[in-house]
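Annex B. Sample input.
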Amino acid sequence: MAPTLRVTLIKPGTIVPELHYGPYSFYWWIISNENETLFPIRLGQQTKVCLNKVDFILTIQTGSGNNKLMPMYCCQSGLHVVTELSSIKAISTAYKNCFNTSTRYSGYQAMGTSSREKWRYAGSERLFDYHVKRRTLANANWKYFFTSWFKTENPIIELEPALHAIYPKGYEFSERELSAWQTMLKAVGATNITPWLSEESKRQLWTKSPNVKADKVAFAALYKSGFLTSIPKNMPNATHTFWMCFELALANNKKTPDGKRRILSIISNDFTYGELKQNLNVIFYSFALYVKF
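Annex B, continued. Sample output.
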């Protein structure tokens, strides 16, 4: 277990909306294990930590190229300078370069996140107060919603069931509340990847993954192939019920004197031969017998 570090805050850094509330915001916030509070990783933040009687300076920067919106951790001790995507790796590598031996320190601890006093200015409640608080229950535990989501390995949630975990049993959301939550999720960098239209179903899928494009493509393909449905298992599938009733009526319908089955001709005119063949399990030439045009 890594020893407790004494950290000195040199520069507090700043919150940058494009980074902290943009598509890569997931990487600009961390969760304190002490009180499960969200803390921002501030651009330009600088801390000093003494390791083995040597000072190490950790500075938060941005990357370049594909990593230009990601936090980069620059650790310096004397002439030794290391820049990494991981704060832990930056500290450990700089330590190894300095002492020619390996050790492992918590990068977040070296940033001072174990001290609540250093982070009291973080303002992590600002987004909730602005987007949601005035439009929902005052005692909704929004911190639990985000911390539980960030801790899970699955980056994708279904919005309403996930929100129900922080509301009283049987609580019904208004359109205004859900709209406020959606706005907040967008502000913290989450993305709506629901593959179906809202007219078909109100269910929504959201992801915290930085690889949003891949998630959208995958879910759209699953939905198009029929492996993903917009209708929950505990709700009746009206479309499936309709086709079953249509098929049953077709099988039980008697022929008229002219040899044709005149059932639901108006409805059948709204479907293609391909749809009728697939859903009614009848051969193509039989449609002339089933439907009077």
